[in-house]
Amino acid sequence: MEKILTENWTLKNSHTLKVYESTGGYKSLEKLFKMKPDEVTEEVKKSGLRGRGGAGFPAGMKWSFIPKDNSKPHYLCINADESEPGTFKDRYIMELNPHQMIEGSIACAYAIGAKTIYCYIRGEFVFPYERVEKAVEEAYAAGYLGKNIKGSGVEINFYMHRGAGAYICGEETALLESLEGKRGYPRIKPPFPAIMGLFGCPTVINNVETLAAVPYIINKGADAYRKYGTEKSPGTKLFSVSGHVKKPGNYEIPLGYPLKKLIYEDCGGMRNGKALKAVIPGGSSVPVLTAKEAEEVNMDYESLAAKGSMLGSGGVIVMDESTCMVKSLLNLSHFYAHESCGQCSPCREGTGWSRKILERFHEGQGTLKDLDTLLEIADNMMGKTVCVLSDALAMPIQSHINKFRHEFEEHVKLGGCPLEK
Hints:
Elements: H1 17-22, H2 28-32, H3 37-47, H4 59-64, E1 74-80, H5 90-96, H6 98-112, E2 114-121, H7 126-141, E3 157-162, H8 172-179, E4 203-207, H9 208-212, H10 214-220, H11 222-225, E5 236-243, E6 249-254, E7 257-258, H12 259-266, E8 276-280, E9 289-290, H13 291-294, E10 298-299, H14 301-306, E11 315-320, H15 325-339, H16 345-362, H17 368-381, H18 389-414
Parallel strand pairs: 1-2, 1-4, 2-3, 5-11
Antiparallel strand pairs: 5-6, 7-10, 8-9, 8-11
Helix pairs in contact: 3-6, 5-6, 5-7, 15-16, 15-18, 16-17, 16-18, 17-18
């Protein structure tokens, strides 16, 4: 398979402009500026590229929502606030090949008529921030950013903005609020960012990985991109594999690839010869899969949805037979209770209440009635808040209890975790 996102990763100094240009970097701009902005959007739409931040919304369609009039400035915001537990793909793009993201963002900005790009990066990403900042300096010096890019008459400027470590600012409208200097509270939609985004102006927010795929599409065309993946989930995708496998790491594979093959072949199989127990296939917020489900499913949006889970951000968390599923859910509840912004009552109260119940459970003080209470709390959190952070805990609660209820019942029966006795 041709590597679209990771081809340069093994090269020495892959993050530098010199190496990037030597492998064809920024070549897409020659073709880009000969195209009309609408033609760029149509090519990306035709490619079927879907947002890689978690929602999987078609990127070209998102670009097409930007109004055609220029009565207000248009903006592109890069979502580099990668905070989903189990996901570490965007940081590698920024560390190993930041120019690819910059090149893709130039194409997007040109397509939507934006003169300004903001890259909102997670505050803890000190090294990735330094890498991107240096790459931006190189791009300006080489004439790929700024006024009259390569004699095209196009002006595009690029600014870095560091967050302060809030998971909620990965939600696109909370990101916009933070960029504007306000508290990172998600906005009620509509209006959507394409109409009223940053500073009240039309805005596109795209994930790092999404933009990194764009130069390939401009260079080689939508049909070349669609050679990989499935009809409804085209292209390749980065999967961050962690947990109980022999070779954790980032893997670029075509969408539609069997999860079983990813675990047992690419990742070398289960660590210490233990049996597979469960897999969270798309970052911590998606429903968990049993071992049987994981060994039957393919890694694309439709296949995972058919199994009752989601592709999400592509964070594959693999758990072996030594894993306590109560403790797994407790860890998730700690995270989401801590990261809830508190704007919505079902999320603010529901995440904290769930955490307290699960703490009692793990300590051997839970009751069977608590399981019904947890499911009731989850039901009252799902789809009832401004953003989906409450859903991000509600879905794991439902899937963990429904698929591993016997483990929760064992904790009640034995007065604690059977794996720790």
